[in-house]
Amino acid sequence: RAERGGPEPNGSMENVSVPSGELSVYNDSVDLYSLSLGNNTHSNYVHYFHGDLYIILPIIYSVICAVGLTGNMAVIYVILKAPKMKTVTNMFILNLAIADDLFTLVLPISIANHLLNYWPFGEVLCKVTLSIDFYNIFSSIYFLTVMSIDRYLVVWATVRSKRMPYRTYRAAKIISFCVWLLVILIVMPFTIFAGVDVNPYDGRKSCVLMLPDPENLWNKMSRIYTLILGFAIPVSTICILYTMMLYKLRNMRLNSNAKALDKAKKKVTIMVFIVLAVCLFCWTPFHLSTIVALTTDLENTPLVIGISYFITSLSYANSCLNPFLYAFLDDSFRKAFKKMMECRPA
Q: What's the superkingdom here (predicted)?
């Protein structure tokens, strides 16, 4: 059971009772947005959640961490070591794997924070962890947007029977570097506001967003900022690109003089589309929860708390799913991985 309670600003904690079988947590707003992020603002009060979540969530996060770290490291290793894997699309996949690996590397810190129920790691690591947490929101969708643009250009060039001399591995490196810079700039406000807050009633430390006054207004602005830059703009761009791409592919079938896409290009396009679909499946509930939080005033019922943690786990899971998609959908990746894992005589 989850209850929103706690004292008034000048109140006392003496009369707060903990229901039997439940865990008391001095934390911050427990709406869908903050729980999905795993971090909050610094308005202190008490909420409760069932003790089962205290055990189940670290297990889920640990599995995501182990699988994601192993899978993405394998993707990075294969792309960097196998000569035939150095393609434009694989350069973007490489950077997507690096971003996912970066997130899974700091996930154990979030697990420790959850188990300890306080932040013992200091100010610097707080800023780093929250920055990477927010970076995870933007990086996947932005690299997939770039991959969608690349797929559209490939289809467009094929339909018009044109070459693409500017589409090189080196150009993909430069574009990837620009995406990293762009996302760092987008996340910079969250890095600035991240800090360690000390609960005035028991001295418990929390790694949260220390938003200025009026806090409620800044909180809404941060939600809208994340929704627009992390979802609305990139997803709208992707939808427009794929609509135009499907339109061109349809016209190719109708036009007997058009040159059809070859088998390899079709496979890559399908793979990018499926990776994108899985990303949207994992992240759309998170952004929908932001809309819900902006338009309604939800009570912290058991159902809301459970949905919030489910959204968290689903968004985190995206960081470990992509390697499996590459293994199933990309023959060249699967063959390169098997070849590199073969035992070689000394």
A: Eukaryota
**Residues whose CB is less than 8 angstroms from the CB of residue 231 and which lie 6 or more positions away in sequence, other chains included:** 141, 283, 284, 287
Any idea what the Cα angle at residue 169 is, between residues 164 and 174, rounded to 5°?
105
Which ranges in the chain belong to alpha helices (H)? 32-37, 51-81, 88-116, 122-159, 169-193, 215-227, 233-254, 263-295, 302-329, 331-341
As a whole number, mean pLDDT of residues 240-250 equals: 80
pLDDT in tens, 98-131: 999 999 998 899 888 888 888 988 899 999 999 9
Q: Write the pLDDT tens digit of every residue in 308-323.
A: 888 888 888 988 888 8
Question: What angle is formed at CA 317 by the lines to CA 315 and CA 321, rounded to 5 degrees?
Answer: 125
pTM metric for this prediction: 0.78
The per-residue pLDDT for 124 is 92
Instruction: Give the C-alpha separation, 73 to 44, whole Å.
Output: 39
Smallest CA-to-CA distance from 282 within 183, 178, 136 is with 136
By three-state DSSP, how is residue 159 classified?
helix
Residue 3, SS3 per DSSP:
coil
Nearest to 102 by CA among 6, 216, 218, 180: 180
Looking at per-residue pLDDT, the higher value among 32 and 159 belongs to 159
Look at the block and give the residue holding tokens 């959850």: 114
3-class SS of residue 296: coil
Separation in Å, CA 230 to CA 101, 136, 194, 244, 286 = 19, 10, 19, 22, 11
Stretch 47-61: mean pLDDT: 71
Q: Does domain 22-325 have CATH number 3.40.1050.10?
A: no
Task: Identify whether the C-beta of residue 159 lies closer than 8 Å to the C-beta of residue 143.
Answer: no
Write down the domain spans for the chain. 22-325
